[in-house]
Specification:
Layout (H helix, E strand, L loop, with lengths): L6 E9 L11 E3 L2 H5 L4 E8 L4 H21 L6 E3 L3 E3 L5 E8 L3 H6 L3 H5 L10 H4 L3 E8 L4 E8 L5 H15 L34 H4 L3 E7 L1 H11 L9 H19 L13 E5 L18 E5 L7 H12 L18 E4 L7 E6 L6 E7 L1 H7 L3 H4 L3 E2 L6
Parallel strand pairs: 6-7
Antiparallel strand pairs: 1-6, 2-5, 3-8, 3-12, 4-5, 7-8, 9-14, 9-15, 10-11, 13-14
Helix pairs in contact: 2-6, 8-9, 9-10, 9-11
């Protein structure tokens, strides 16, 4: 299917803030978490149901105008990174792309394909331009049936997924003039997480770029609420008597990935070559709590180690319980034409990376899993995994 779906770029333009950024706000300081972030774009896709083409044309123009107003509030996203510690808020602007997709929306939602979804973005997520060029790119995809897909790409050097969510909600409120619902961004994370002094050669940010360079396969697995409940009951233990949805799903995925890795031909010494796993956690679990609209990278990381004694699942549950990990919430923006049919992470080509997101119902979980070709063949045929998850089912809404 991927080779048959064509995306035609109709126009590319630069959108600048509707009002110039004041001089005293021209230098936005990055925190050390921002500096240490991967040089990628955070990619997200919002899909809206069918409407006639005329309505879509009107939507496009309205989005264009309201984006300019939104950039006035999110002025760093219209700037450029200068050096390694500052965004120069020079109003150079964001990229706004209009594209025509030569298929219906239903074809995309039948069995979502990672390669196809990446075409709905204005740039490849792995592009190093995320640290050297335009920080925000938006692509409006117009389908033959009248449906619309909005692809967001925002530099990870400036934003995490919560920041992107704040931006989308701010844009949504601006689009239909709901100033009473406008949640303005809160800046100043660098005052909490002081920047690194990268002029010291002994100091360098955490930059596991090798993972992004590795070839991998991507698969989508969906866990419905009933299967998650059964899984939670199964993995409950004295250590974690009431595992969360994410603890249960993440532990199963991790366990099945370890089994695949230990059986692969590349692991000639067996499980002794299995490296520690990194589990990231959203900012909402910080103590004390951080403002929801605080802009920047505020993602915590924990390290999990596999045990040969068969305790991999319980160790992961313990890790998750302590840090309260959760799936990325679909706090979807409504631009004036209803709730999106689907909100999806767009897979980044990074090996051994799994991203969890809520389903539209807020109870199920979608997992995008990246593994090597050999490991994926072993992983996606795991009977325990398939007892709880469906491999790339149709998107229901």
């Amino acid at each position: 299917m991927a080779s048959q779906i064509k995306v035609e770029i109709l126009a590319r333009q630069t959108v600048r803030p509707s009002s110039p950024t004041p001089h005293h706000l021209r230098n936005y300081e990055l925190s050390h978490y921002d500096q240490s972030a991967l040089q990628i774009y955070v990619p997200l896709l919002l899909v809206y149901p069918n409407a006639d083409a005329t309505t879509n044309n009107e939507r496009f123009q309205h989005l264009l105008q309201s984006l300019s107003k939104t950039l006035t509030h999110f002025y760093p996203s219209a700037g450029r990174i200068k050096g390694d510690a500052v965004i120069e808020c020079n109003d150079d602007g964001a990229e706004f792309v209009r594209a025509r997709v030569k298929c219906s929306l239903s074809e995309i939602l039948e069995h979502p394909d990672a390669e196809v979804l990446r075409r709905f973005l204005a740039i490849e997520p792995e592009s190093r331009e995320s640290a050297t060029g335009t920080l925000l790119r938006v692509q409006i995809n117009l389908f033959e049936c009248g449906g619309m897909g909005i692809g967001f790409s925002i530099s990870r050097k400036f934003a995490d997924t919560s920041t992107l969510s704040t931006f989308i909600n701010c844009w949504s409120a601006t689009t239909h003039d709901e100033s009473n619902k406008l949640m303005l961004p809160k800046f100043g994370v660098a005052s909490l997480l002081s920047p690194l002094n990268l002029s010291n050669s002994e100091t360098s940010p955490f930059q596991p770029d090798d993972a992004v360079k590795e070839k991998c396969m991507t698969r989508r697995f969906v866990f419905d609420v009933s299967e998650i409940a059964a899984l939670q009951s199964k993995v409950a233990s004295a250590v974690v008597p009431k595992p969360t949805r994410v603890e249960a799903v993440a532990a199963l995925i991790w366990k099945c990935q370890i089994e695949a890795s230990s059986r692969s031909s590349s692991n000639i010494l067996g499980t002794s070559l299995i490296r520690p796993s990194v589990f990231s956690h959203p900012r909402k679990n910080a103590v004390p709590p951080l403002p929801e609209n605080l802009v920047g990278n505020l993602v915590d990381f924990s390290i999990a180690h596999y045990s040969h004694s068969g305790e991999s699942t319980s160790r992961f549950e313990r890790l998750g319980c302590k840090n309260q990990g959760s799936a990325r919430r679909n706090k979807s923006a409504r631009f004036g034409w209803g709730k999106p049919s689907w909100v999806s992470f767009v897979p980044v080509e990074a090996n051994n990376v799994t991203v969890l997101m809520d389903k539209r119902d807020g109870n199920g979980i979608e997992a995008w899993v990246n593994l090597s070709q050999e490991n994926m063949a072993l992983f996606e045929s795991n009977e325990e995994l398939l007892a709880y998850a469906s491999l790339n089912p149709r998107v229901t809404y």
